[in-house]
């Protein structure tokens, strides 16, 4: 076990970082907000925490916290700015936001390291910090999918007009989705730069958006379980496809396209649908058995009275 851990330490670290990144995109999508702003928040967290640790010597966890607050504020402002957009227009606006973050990193001079980025960001972040923060993110998101909050989020996604008519503030929930997405994305980016001790614009470019979207498409956007599943698959899949050589990217693309076409709800969607059908089948009355209300009537009425009433 220790040999496996030592040989795959980078992949294990990337798995927990990928889970937080995937959740940063899954949260707004579950609320009906087609946003990729989590990738931009990833870049904000990565650079802000790296600058704080490298330039000021700030403790790692404090730098992660401050980076998260900055990303939450930026997420709130972005949500207010694009509040009236929806669908493809909202998606393009958030992609533009991600690209703006990348451009700022490239043109940040000595502060961001320009094209080469920042190196030597030494920190005390361990695998236990990664696991702990990832679990906190998972638990937090899981709680929003249960109870009253979960039902309200579902209503905001499925029928905003109806949700608004019964007193649910659709705007507030969508803004909250931007804020939570900003926090999750920022923590993922901070952990990436602090664990690897480096960050560059190539780490937060368009490829990061594609990776996050791929995780959600294959895993499923309706639950945190789908985001976790997608993150695990697409963290460990590239090394497994290395044996295909130059065809690696082709095989990768075929897998993603196949999932998008034939499994639109993601892998977790298949499980959820199967569970729903199984539950529905159990509720059906077994063949040849009288309905429950007729059985109750036969028990409560004596035979003679039943015959006369017939």
Defining traits:
15 helices, single chain, 2 strands, two-stranded antiparallel ribbon, mainly alpha, disordered C terminus
Please render the helix and strand layout as text.
Blueprint: H1 2-7, H2 9-30, H3 37-56, H4 60-81, H5 87-106, E1 118-119, H6 127-144, H7 147-158, H8 160-165, H9 170-196, E2 198-199, H10 206-219, H11 224-241, H12 248-262, H13 266-283, H14 292-300, H15 303-309
Antiparallel strand pairs: 1-2
Helix pairs in contact: 2-3, 2-6, 2-9, 2-10, 2-11, 3-4, 3-5, 3-9, 4-9, 10-11, 10-13, 11-13
Gyration radius, rounded: 24 Å
Can you summarize the main beta sheet? 2 strands, antiparallel
Helix content: over 70%
The low-confidence parts are 292-310
Helix/strand/pairing class, anyone? mainly alpha
N→C terminal distance: 73 Å
Strand order of the largest sheet: 1-2
Q: What is the approximate shape?
A: globular
Q: If you had to describe this structure to a student in words, what would you say it looks like?
A:
The protein has 310 residues and is an all-alpha fold. The chain has a domain at 2-205. 75% of the residues lie in helices and 1% in strands. The protein has 15 helices and 2 strands. Strands 1-2 form a two-stranded antiparallel sheet. The protein is globular and about 65 Å long. The N and C termini lie far apart (73 Å).
């Amino acid at each position: 076990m220790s040999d496996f851990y030592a040989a795959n330490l980078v992949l294990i670290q990337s798995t927990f970082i990928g889970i937080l990144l995937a959740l940063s995109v899954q949260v707004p999508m579950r609320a009906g907000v087609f946003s990729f702003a989590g990738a931009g928040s990833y870049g904000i967290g990565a650079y802000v925490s790296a600058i704080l640790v490298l330039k000021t010597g700030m403790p790692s966890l404090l730098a992660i916290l401050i980076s998260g607050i900055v990303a939450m504020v930026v997420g709130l402002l972005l949500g207010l700015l694009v509040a009236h957009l929806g669908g493809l227009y909202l998606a393009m606006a958030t992609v533009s936001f991600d690209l703006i973050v990348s451009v700022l990193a490239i043109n940040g001079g000595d502060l961001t390291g320009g094209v080469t980025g920042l190196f030597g960001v030494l920190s005390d972040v361990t695998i236990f910090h990664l696991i702990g923060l990832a679990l906190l993110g998972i638990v937090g998101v899981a709680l929003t999918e249960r109870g009253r909050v979960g039902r309200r989020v579902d209503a905001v996604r499925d029928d905003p007009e109806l949700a608004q008519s019964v007193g649910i503030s659709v705007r507030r929930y969508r803004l909250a989705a931007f804020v939570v997405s900003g926090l999750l994305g920022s923590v993922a980016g901070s952990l990436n730069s602090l664990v690897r001790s480096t960050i560059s614009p190539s780490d937060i470019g368009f490829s990061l958006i594609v990776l996050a979207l791929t995780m959600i498409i294959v895993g499923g956007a309706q639950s945190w379980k789908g985001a976790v599943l997608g993150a695990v698959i697409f963290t460990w899949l590239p090394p497994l496809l290395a044996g295909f050589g130059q065809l690696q990217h082709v095989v990768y693309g075929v897998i993603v396209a196949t999932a998008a076409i034939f499994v639109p709800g993601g892998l977790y969607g298949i499980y959820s649908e199967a569970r729903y059908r199984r539950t529905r089948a159990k509720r059906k009355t077994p063949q040849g058995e009288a309905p429950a209300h007729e059985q109750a009537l036969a028990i409560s009425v004596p035979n003679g009275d039943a015959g006369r009433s017939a």
